[in-house]
Structure formats: C-alpha cells, structure tokens
Amino acid sequence: MEVLKLFGKSQKTKTDEKIDLDIGDMIGTFKGIADNPLSKFFLGRTLDYCETDGANRIEVGLDLYLGNRKDACIKCKVVSKIVNYLISKGSSSFGVSEDGLKETMEDKYWVKGLSSVIKGIAMFGVQKPFVPGAPFQVVWNITKSCNMKCVHCYENAGNKDGYELTREEVVKGLEILSKAGVTSVAFSGGEPTLHPHLAKFIKITNELGMFPAIATNGYTLSNEYVCNKFIDAGLKFVQISIDGLNPQTHGKFRGVDGAWEKAIQAVRNCVDTDLFVEVATTVTEHNFKEIPEMIDLMRDMGVDWFMIYNFIPTGKGENIAGMDISPQKRLKLLKTAYTENGKGKMQILSTAPQYAMVAESLACNDNPIIPTHFYNPKYSNPLVKQLADFIGGCGAGRFYMSVEPNGDLYPCVF
Predict the structure, then answer these.
(1) pLDDT tens digits, residue range 272-316?
(2) pTM to 2 decimals?
(3) 58-80 pLDDT tens trace
(4) Long-range contacts formed by 164-172: CB under 8 A, 24+ apart
(5) CA separation, residue 404 to residues 149, 170, 327 (Å)
(6) Dist CA 250 CA 354 (whole Å)
C-alpha cells in the first residue's frame, strides 16, 4: 500500500478537487500508454528476464534510472528509457516531483513492486480491478509440522506432511518467484520456525531482492538467540499470533501450556530490534471481550500493527464453526478498532470487509481514516473511492497467493 502513502504526501499541497483530477489523470495516462500500439510493443519488450544482468529487465531499467546500476546490456538500457518515460508521466499525474519519487524508490522492495505494476500494465493493460505482473506477496506454508494444537487451524497442521519440498526445491521455487517479479515472501506453516532451513530461505529471499517475512506462534522466538538468527539472515517482518489477554484464554485456544508467555516474550524480543512487528489475533466468542485490552497491551509493548482476523471455519476450524461472533458483535468490535486508531503509533487493521463501511459511518474531520488490510490512510475525499475501484476488492490470485508444503499453488491460504 505504498502508493497510498505517496498520495498522502501530495495531499498536503493539493486541494481535494485537484487530487480527484490527478487520480483520474493518472489512470487515464497509464491507460493511454497501455492502449497505444507503439507503447504496447515497447512495454512488451520489458517483460523477460535478462540473464546478462541477472534480473528482470524492468528492474534493471529502474536501477539504471535511479543510479543504482552504472551499466547494463543494450536491451536493458532501452528499457530504462521506457521506464524513464513512464515514471515521468506517472509522477506528473500523481502531483509529486520526480526527485520525490526517486527518494521513495530508494527502497529496493518498492522498486520490485513498481516493476510488477509496470509489468501488469504491459501484460493486461489498465483495467479495473488492476492485475499486476506478479503477486505482491506469496504466503508459503513451508511445513505442516507444528508445536501447537490450535483449534482453528486452517492448515490442519500438526505433523509433517507425507511429502514436503526439499531444501533444493524450495530454493528453486524462490528463484522462480523472484524472476516472476514477486515482491514479498511470507513463510508460514504449520510453524515455519521448526523448519531446519528457514534461516537459509530467509537469506536467499533477501538476496533475491524479495521482502522476507514470517508468520509464527512465537514459541521458538521467545529464545533471543533464535530470534537473532533469523534477523541476521535478513528477516524484515514478523507476525506473531496471540489469541488472548492471558495465559488461560490463549492456551485453551492453542492447546499448549505456556504458549502465551512464550508469545509475549517473542514480541518483547522482536520489538527490541529493527523488525516490523505485527501481532495477529483471530476473533471468536472465546476472546471477543478481551480485544480492547489486548489493543492497549500491544500498544504499550511497542507493536507496529495489531491485526484482527475474521475467523474462517476451514481445516480444524470446521469443528468450532459455532464459535464465530455475531454480526452485531463484529460491528461493535470494528467500531472499537476504528476509534482506537490514532491513539498511538500502532495501527489496528482487520481482514473484515465490513471495516471500511464502519469507518465511513464514523469518519470525522479530526481523524478520518479509510482502513485496509495493510494500511490506514487518512482521507475524507473521493480519491480513495477512485483508487479502490482501480485496485479492486479481494486480491486473491492477483495481489497475493499461497504455496503449500508440497509445492501446490492456490490463490489464497484458505
């Protein structure tokens, strides 16, 4: 959602009317480029992987444009000219300077994401909803092995599966994802930290230019040495699951004594580092009443994001389908999440599609936010509506996808 942060910079110097014009102009500009036969021809030349320069031609072209690379093959130099033109047009439409855009793109992962956007325009044109050239994130469940017995587990995790990809096969898969233009890989499971080669996978993901993340129950990360091992390998983001305010609630949900204490210690270990830390909770009747105090606790601990997940009764969760909260309770929960945003640096996010509706009904001039799964931009004008129409709803199969331990691909983890 970096594009929303980019809009946030321009809003400070533009009126609402002007911003609405800019977003329309931006989409129109890119559509005009994509629909032009000559532009389409040249964009098509940017899609392949350059063996000489060791990266996708779009990424090489962006690196040349940004000054991160001094030389490249002739084809990639031509691509750089095309990229230069696209960015010049795009920055003008966004209402930001080219220098400001270059400063944003100093983040290599941002470059990877932008490459996927340009590739998507070349492959599919500018359509609604937008389809990038590759998913921005792949959630890779690298093992079914798990040290807990969670009653809601969508993956039916526990013991290692009959066949799981070898180390060499996972590495090959990561290389394929990088060449395809994937921006981020989030390792999950089962419990990913139980995989003997996780640190190696994180290191290779980082070296391939993708953003490495893990989703964990936190048990092993309570050991500071283990935590630092993954950080040293290049880990950037950690999601730790905590499903209650106390050991009893969390332990009953997770099926392991001491799980809450371990998870809390893992959060402490991670917030003391440069990691971006998200704490995730799946809301059911089991923990609904504890969420407000959990928000306070995680904010006090220095967590960056608190994610409220809808309970999806798949996998083991089919056995407790009746534990889902009522629509009335969900509405109350989302109102609490909305009002708690802005009380500190921690952002409160939710996968509930009703969250945006709640935000619209509660929006005020002092703190108007439009919540998404990954970012809470502050806007009160129609720009977000235009952008939402462009991006579309559920991103399964477009913005993200999942890989199972045996290598099977799905549009979503559920």
Answers:
(1) 998 999 999 999 999 999 999 999 999 999 999 999 999 988 889
(2) 0.84
(3) 888 888 888 888 899 998 998 88
(4) 164/405, 164/406, 165/405, 165/406, 165/407, 167/197, 167/200, 169/407, 170/140, 170/142, 170/197, 170/201, 171/200, 171/201, 171/204
(5) 19, 11, 32
(6) 26
